[in-house]
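fyi for ur records
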Amino acid sequence: MAGRVHPADPRFFLLLTVGALEVSRWPGFCATCHEIRPEYMTWKVSTHQKVACTNCHYVPGADGKRPSLIGGELLALKRVYQQVFGKYLLPIELKAPIPNAACLGCHSPNRNPTPRRTDITIPHDKHLAQGLHCSYCHAGVVHGRISEREKTLNGDFDRWTPELARSQLVPPFTTLRMANCLDCHKARGVPTRCGACHTTIHKPKSHQTPTWVPGDHGRAALGSIDECDRCHSITAEPLQIRAETIAASYSRSNAFCYGCHQGKPPGHAGNWRLRHGSTPKNGNKGCFTCHDSTRGSAGDRANQVYCTQCHRQMHPNGPPSNHPVPVVRGQGPSSQCYNCHIEQTCVQCH
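which gave:
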């Protein structure tokens, strides 16, 4: 029959080989290997579901689009060998980043970015000029970094359904975190100030009140430090410092907070030492954000003023040397003492 090649014809093997190699381009071919099922399912429900696997994972040819026959299909046959004879290791990982040419075959480096926050400036051309791979920032866009997150180590590939795959393609796994941007910027000496990437800084309504910085933010932090951490955990290098309260531990571990907490607040001016005992409205937890009750080490990052400098229990060695009012040993308390002290406490001994 015209157009058909007999199996005895030498061209038959060539056509069969070319046909097999062409089939290896189909995404469904990847799914025939059960260990690739998680990657196949995440691809199938991703934004790149209409882009063939070979367009990204095989070395682009001379035209920048069609996968190279030598570089691509022979690699696919190698993968078939590994699958048949169980020569693969989990998790399945790329040995090298996806080449930028694979991405630039569809995407322009001059396109306007469409992040969830529209105030972010992302100069793709500058990143490419520095030799960065697109996949450094967009690693999770297709597979949600399931290999990196070790979601396939148990070898239970049959459980990977479209529903499970969708659960792995949520923003925390598909988009880049600001901390990743800052880590790269710091390593390369690129500015890390907010205005370098954000055209507009959106402050929450609570931050826009005149009393937010003097005191409201501290009371809010005592109530829920997690709300503060949503933004301020990525503003500076975090340390791990344990203090007497959660808010104190956080404020001393985060340089964004610590810079202000080492200064004297406006409310501490004048005769603050004489009246500070009657000032706290919610107990002394707020005091321990900056101060400690006893002398600490330099690693505690506490204010140099601590409670027992003045508040020595029962005054075992007499009044402290820095007592704001002269005290004569053996003389009972006067009415002036009760400006700071509680009379019921004093009369237990005096």
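The two ends are 121 Å apart (CA to CA). thats all i got for now
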